[in-house]
Write a structure and sequence with these properties.
By secondary structure, the chain is an alpha/beta fold. Helices cover 24% and strands 23% of the residues. The protein has 8 helices and 11 strands. The protein has helices at 24-30, 69-81, 89-95, 107-113, 132-135, 152-159, 174-183, 195-203; strands spanning 6-10, 18-19, 43-51, 84-88, 120-124, 142-145, 164-166, 188-191, 209-215, 239-247, 250-257. The protein has an 11-stranded mixed sheet, sandwiched between helices. The protein is globular, with a radius of gyration of 18 Å.
């Protein structure tokens, strides 16, 4: 498919600007990640897609069937800024994740920022099975798991002890998980789902911003929303727009989220 042009709708002062198919630098600038600085804390960006009727997947239960080339452009730009992509075990299985490659257009910029040339993948898995193709590949993921996982020693032997990050007992402690990634120098975190993991991250105040693509489709069915949880988040997490892009009916929004001690009045990145 041809690479689409993206039209800027927000912020107002940039409305009407067009990002051509070959202007990767302009698109990357719109997704600039806050610089954590030496020893700085982590910053978590979530990236999700939803249909007009709120579904996070199509009838096949994966997001690929509601995806589109405009979303792919934004997806590549965000990965270009990230140190690590964080996903749940269910998403790793359903979406067929393997070792990640950095978009070629971002390699020089990553080097200039002092980032690692490669993009890490971290999978949250308390005790669930992970695909053999993922674990046994040449670049196994970081597995974020629990101290009482029955096969913990076997997992360490399979992928290497340095590829296992223990965070909590009984259930993965996501605060410990994000802090553990930061200690490894992986401070720019891109959470790509699934909806259950994202709901847990947001409920714990760990997500700084949400990049949400709205796909111009209606699918009905029983697909989850981008946050899938039986519990309400109270008080509700508020958001304010950083930018809104458009291409052929697809809307690409970047939203800053308020945190437990961040009353939505803080500075934008």
């Amino acid at each position: 498919m041809p690479v689409p042009t993206l039209d800027v709708l927000l912020p107002v002062e940039r409305a009407g600007q067009r990002i051509s198919p070959h202007d990767d630098a302009a698109l990357s600038a719109l997704y600039e990640h806050p610089d954590p600085g030496a020893g700085g804390g982590p910053y978590v960006r979530a990236n999700m897609i939803s249909t007009l009727d709120g579904a996070a997947t199509g009838a096949d239960r994966v997001s690929g069937s509601i995806n589109n080339p405009a979303d792919h452009r934004a997806f590549e730009a965000q990965r270009g800024w990230a140190d690590v992509v964080l996903i749940g075990a269910g998403t790793a299985r359903a979406e067929g994740y393997l070792a990640l490659a950095v978009p070629a257009s971002s390699s020089d910029a990553r080097a200039a920022r002092g980032q690692l040339p490669g993009l890490e993948l971290a999978v949250v898995s308390a005790h669930g099975a992970l695909p053999a193709g993922l674990l046994d590949g040449p670049r196994p993921p970081l597995v974020v798991t629990i101290a009482d996982r029955p096969d913990l020693d076997g997992l360490r032997g399979r992928i290497g002890p340095d590829r296992v990050l223990v965070a909590g007992t009984g259930a993965v402690d996501l605060h410990q998980a994000i802090a553990g990634l930061a200690r490894r120098g992986l401070r720019r975190v891109l959470a790509e789902g699934g909806p259950r993991l994202l709901a847990q991250l947001v409920a714990r105040g760990l997500v700084d911003e949400l990049c949400l693509t709205t796909s111009p489709m209606l699918v009905a069915g029983s697909a989850p929303r981008v946050l899938d949880s039986e519990r309400w988040i109270t008080p509700a997490v508020e958001a304010r727009p950083v930018h809104l892009l458009h291409s052929g009916g697809v809307l690409l929004g970047r939203w800053l989220l308020s945190g437990p001690e961040d009353p939505l009045l803080g500075s934008q990145p």
